[in-house]
What does this fold into?
Amino acid sequence: MSISYADSGVNREEGYKAVSLMKEVVAKTMHSNVLNTIGSFGAMYELGKYNNPVLVSGTDGVGTKLEIAFSMKKYDTVGIDAVAMCVNDVLCHGAKPIFFLDYLACGKLNGETASLIVKGIADGCYEAGAALIGGETAEMPGFYKEGDYDIAGFCVGVVEKDKIIDGANVAEDDAVIGISSSGFHSNGFSLIRKLVRDYNAVFEGEKIGETLLVPTKIYVKKVLPLLEKYNIKGMAHITGGGLIENVPRAIAKGYKAVIKKDSFQTPNIFNYIRYLGNIKEEEMYNTFNMGIGFVIIASKDDKDNIIRDLEAMNEEAYDIGYITKNEDEGKSGICLE
It folds into this structure.
């Protein structure tokens, strides 16, 4: 008896359908630096005019937030999360994201579902100004359950070597500016899923699942103009580990950030999750972003102007703290007040 690839559970025709549906949404992210189209063995990108370019790369996934999306059959936003987690990271070093590649794995491919996921990825790339120049869709029956998908991505950005931001110039009395998050972004969902059992339950007038699925905010187009105007010394994307773990990554050794907890608004959904699990305050700040998705460290003389510029771009921004000497000169740190 002869056996085919289809007999193993892989449907080539559904894969062709998925690619066809994806092409239109991917095309909107392309620009003149992309030298070839979807279907090549490798993607080609021309850097253009730089004096001494440094490539900055980042890779990440969406994590267990996906389980909520698929339970609610909402497939078009988690792709934005995949992009945001990567582009916001490379932005922290002053790099402009230039291209993105995605990886989508599943047990049984549904072309329409896959195209909605990739639509979200394309939307995120468009918002970040990055070209979606390639990707991989892997159908793996027997490894993933039917209906399960996993999403990951890889971003490359570029920055002039003399404009790299790495926290080395952070100094005492510098200001710490926080930009609001859009919710939990893509972190802490293993804990959230233990506490929220019914995604259709109503929270503040809408299904709590919808609130939890609000995609990660992309900060690229709001922050890049600031780099041209101000002496920004450090930046942090507030992901897993929350403010406690991520802010020190943007600070030179020998200094610490003092964060004023009452200086910014924490959305009610965070307090609700804390209530459900009777979670200690420190655990909240060490797991979730608590309403601050991105942090900028700059001279205190620039603080008010930076906040004013962000507000003019419809971003909520706060003066959330300052930099001081750290007792352990060999480490960077953080203190919550």
